[in-house]
TrEMBL record:
Protein name as annotated: Glycerophosphoryl diester phosphodiesterase
Species name: Fictibacillus barbaricus
CDD domains the UniProt entry points to: GDPD_SaGlpQ_like
Signal peptide start-end: 1-25
Database matches in Pfam families: GDPD
Primary enzyme class: hydrolase
Gene3D superfamilies reported for this sequence: Phosphatidylinositol (PI) phosphodiesterase
Amino acid sequence: MKKSFKTMGALALSLSIMGTGLAGAHASEKKQDDILNVAHRGASGYAPEHTITSYKMGEKLHGDYIEIDLQMTKDGKLIAMHDETLDRTTNGTGQVKDHTLAEIKTLDAGSWFNEKYPEKANPDYKGLQVPTLEEIFQTFGKNANYYIETKSPEVYPGMEQKLEDMVNEYHINKDKLLVQSFSSASLKKMQGIDPSLKLVQLLSYKTPAVLSDAEVQDIKKYAIGIGPNSNMIDKAYVQKAVQNGLQIHPYTVNEKAEMQKLIDWGVTGMFTNYPDLLNEVKKGK
Ligand code: G3P
Ligand code: CA
């Protein structure tokens, strides 16, 4: 059966949360199959990140979730972009917050990819636009699996309420929605606005990561899981999270050997620019 953003992610998440109750080799295979495959900025290893094209490619490659980073324009519109500045992923310059949506819509969000990755270049990428969150919801619908990050929330006061308003306006299925942030304050705002939302605390470590009991208990008050950078965690870290009932989705994992190692350690999902590679690993290829 074809997996898609619309079906597999929520199923995998609910199975992971509930536990499968299976035993032995079958349980192990099932567990591996349930690993959430999060298409990081879409299938951004193959297409310009945070474009509708990249998200569609993520779906085509059977990613379970569309990962979206949010920034906010001068006129208060939520757009999908990783950086606070336009420079890296468009032909514009300057801060997103200093430009209106109309201005940002004139920019080319695809040519940079062709220039940076000539071996993956595609003429169709030239002229791709920066999508709004609204356009993403209009394109993929209310039953897609969205994994949305409030980026730089201190720069964009009110972005949490705008996200909630957009989710409600498009009747997004909240069982299939995950909201992530490095900012615990932003996540707690989201929790205050809508306690039904599933939240994930992103974590960034510069040295080998340790998860303390106090940290686990604090995060569990508002989040269902954590998203640490994959290169600073170890088996003990992963198991501490899982044994305490937290989902754990490391980022950003693009090598098959690392994917398999993390699965063996017990992660419940991961962010990848190459959802096809993660699916190969999950199938034992
Ligand atoms: O959201 C998970 C991962 O994407 C966090 O890092 O910088 O790629 O948003 P970043
Ligand atoms: Ca992100």
